[in-house]
Design a protein that fits this description.
about 220 residues, alpha/beta, two-stranded antiparallel sheet
């Protein structure tokens, strides 16, 4: 197996599971007529319900919250993945990008992307930044994320909020530092919140995340 990027530890070798057919699996909370939306992208080995309660807690009950389910079965037999991290050079990444872009554009039929913020964790954070960089979303929140191999975002870019544990044993803190460097090099606005923890979303950061959401959702017209 070829090594994964230096910023992301290589997973143990394991037999790859063929991708499952793409579906529009998602979970929805909040009022149907909401004028702002938070889209959630879960991490490797989790499922759409993993971030749903968190999303509602951060966004409030007046906000539409949609949690997307990753398209592939996880190789360990539990949970889902956006693409297989265990295959050399991640050949499924290109297809995963295209699928996620299509799903976000489909959501824009009911509410413009300019009124949407995307929040991802771990592999979901990598997907959020990768795909939303080329879409007119209001902002992106990436928790414990990492840059895909050879990734280079291009302006115009939405503002991003990064969070990462300095003791993360799964995705090193340096991965978010590199994300911030790449984003700022392309002219994007970014903020990195580090905390003394591991591979998680620290509840101590919830007030800062809520403030970021309120700041970047478009304000309703009087």
């Amino acid at each position: 197996m070829a090594p994964a990027p230096a910023l992301l530890p290589a997973p143990p070798p394991e037999r790859a599971v063929p991708p499952t057919p793409m579906t529009d699996d998602l979970l929805i909370r909040g009022p149907a007529a909401a004028q702002q939306r938070l889209v959630l992208l879960h991490g490797w080995g989790a499922d759409a319900d993993d971030l749903l309660d968190l999303g509602e807690e951060l966004a409030g009950r007046s906000t539409g919250v949609i949690s997307l389910r990753a398209p592939e079965a996880h190789p360990h037999g539990v949970g889902r993945q956006w693409y297989d991290l265990q295959q050399p050079e991640w050949p499924g990444l290109l297809g995963a990008r295209q699928q996620l872009r299509q799903r976000l554009e489909a959501l824009a039929e009911s509410l413009p992307l300019q009124q949407t913020i995307v929040l991802g964790f771990s592999q979901g954070a990598a997907m959020a930044l990768d795909v939303a960089a080329d879409l007119p979303v209001a902002a992106v929140i990436a928790c414990s994320g990492y840059p895909p191999p050879g990734w280079s975002p291009h302006a115009p870019l939405p503002p991003i909020l990064l969070s990462h544990g300095r003791a993360d044993p799964v995705v090193p803190y340096a991965a978010s530092e590199e994300l911030q460097r790449l984003w700022r090099s392309a002219g994007g606005e970014s903020q990195l919140l580090g905390f003394p923890g591991g591979h998680t979303i620290d509840p101590a950061l919830f007030p800062s995340i809520r403030s970021f959401l309120l700041e970047h959702w478009p304000q309703p017209s009087p």
